[in-house]
Amino acid sequence: MQISLTINGTDVTREIEPRVLLVHFIRDDLRLTGTHWGCDTSNCGTCVVLMDGQPVKSCTVLAAMADGHTITTVEGLADGATLDPVQQGFMEEHGLQCGFCTPGMMLTARALLDHNPHPEPLEIREAISGQICRCTGYATIVRSIQWAAEHPLVAAVDTTEDEEVRA
Amino acid sequence: MQIPAPFDYVRASSVENALALLDRHGPESRVVAGGHSLLPMMKLRLARPDWLIDINDLFELDYLLIDRVLVDQHVLRIGAMTRHTTLLESDDVQRLFPIVTDAERVIADPIVRNRGTIGGSLCQADPAEDLSTVCHVLEAVAVVRGPAGERMLSMAEFHRGPYETAVAQNELLIEVRVPIRERSGSAYEKVERRVGDWAVAAAGASVSLASDGTIGQVAVGLTAVGLDRNVTEVEAVLVGQAPTEELFTEAGRLASIACDPLTDQRGPVDYKRHLADELTRRVLRAACRRAAASVSEITI
After folding, report:
1. Second-level CATH architecture of A85-156
2. Chain B residues touching residue A129 (CB < 8 angstroms)
3. Domain A2-76 fold
4. Where exactly does CATH 1.10.150.120 map onto chain A?
5. Which of A46, B34, B61, B94 could form a disulfide with B101 if both were Cys (CB 3.0 to 4.6 A apart)?
6. DSSP state letters, A103-133
7. DSSP 8-state secondary structure symbol assigned to residue B145
8. What number is the ipTM of this complex?
9. DSSP readout, A18-56?
10. Where in chain A is the domain with CATH 3.10.20.30?
11. What 3-state class would DSSP assign to B189?
12. Scanning every residue of chain A, which has its alpha carbon at the shortest distance from the alpha carbon of B195?
């Protein structure tokens, strides 16, 4: 069957088998390997992508079900050379160790901040509770997301103001 | 790599279209909503449909509305495609049926809740599933539509056993109706090993208080401990009594005797009986407290 969807702002049309899972379509057909494939049982959350802005576990969504929808993967977070504040936050606060859970964590964080720009630490923990970091680096992941909440894109781009704050 | 066996996929455009597709493709076709039960079963070959009928475009079944069905009977009508996240975030649901909000907080995880639907949860009929107990306790009615029209089923009629419902192959669950009662309160509590896991055990209760403050109407249900949800033995001793700690203790004791859990990786029988006891007391306490607080503030 043929599906058409928008992924990271680009329209794509592909011929697929109906049984292909969204995670494999993204990784194998579109060669966007930033989306990781983990437990295959909707437990670990490393395969999280945004479908119409909402985080979903792409190992438990058929590519066919994404037909006509808008998908954002980790490759779509940055705007050219400008990192998403969430990505910057993971750098600033050491939100990743081995990096395996990172793409899913960052996309969930992006959706959380779009929905709730100033989450409490407990709300961040709740939001990422469907995801597993086997390095157990949760404290730094929560701090990374807090950093992103405190540095929304508008402020991050405005470097002059940033410098004034530092001065 | 877990991949389902081959199947053909078709997306339904309306309820009528979904029913026509079920009719056309026959017994080897299955409806998929959120897919978080069916797709894992298909990966493991526990389900192997030839046709998958995707009903995610049936936005007409994604609604929450308060309606009057009889002169003095109001109900909350929940469309079968209403997502868990929608139920969790609804102020009306929290106000009228806090048991639903309690349960939704501990169903799977926030990301799975973005996809999962109430209709899918009820139709999956997993004995450890939380919303099924909630709907039994709230005396919800399932509205099922088929070629011959609609039929209304009590939850006892709807759930025939583990993984089995009264929904025929050519029918679709389209709505869940929950009666709204005055002076009522409800609560759900679950013990799970970790976020997103199925219950080791869970309990739900719904209570309506009589004008003299005694328990007028009550339902208590248990999840994952080998019962058809409702604990009728407990309900019988509660009706007409004043809600006291002694009464809750007796209810808990009866619940621990009435349940029939199995030892598995989630715990031994003794532990699960202990949970049935403790959780029954807790949800009754919370439901009665909420019922008392709701008096004089019910607005529809």
Report:
1. Orthogonal Bundle (1.10)
2. 109-110, 195-196
3. Ubiquitin-like (UB roll) (3.10.20)
4. 85-156
5. B94
6. HHHHHHHHHHHHH-SS--HHHHHHHTTT---
7. E
8. 0.91
9. TT-BHHHIIIIIS--TTS----SSSSS-TTEEEETTEEE
10. 2-76
11. strand
12. A129
Residue A160 CA: distances (Å) to CA of A75, A86, A88, A157, A166:
28, 21, 18, 9, 10
Alpha-carbon distance values, B190 to A9, A84, B138, B261, B286 (Å): 42, 38, 17, 15, 14
d(CA B57, CA B155): 26
* pLDDT reported for residue A32: 98
**CA B108, B201, B198 angle in degrees (round to 5)?**
25
Kindly state the tokens that stand for A52: 């119409």
The Cα–Cα gap between B7 and B163 comes to 22
Please answer yes or no on whether A21 and B195 come within 8 Å at the CB atom: no
The H-or-E segment that residue B204 falls in is strand B199-209
Q: Using the structure block, give the residue that is written with the tokens 């926030």.
A: B110
pTM for this entry: 0.93
**Each residue of B109-129: pLDDT tens digit?**
999 999 999 999 999 999 999
Joined together, the tokens standing for residue B157 give: 């009629």
| Whole-number pLDDT of residue A154 | 64
Are B109 and A108 a contacting pair at CB < 8 A? no
Single out the residue of B111, B28, B246 nearest to residue A56, CA to CA: B111
Are the beta carbons of A60 and B111 separated by less than 8 Å?
A: no
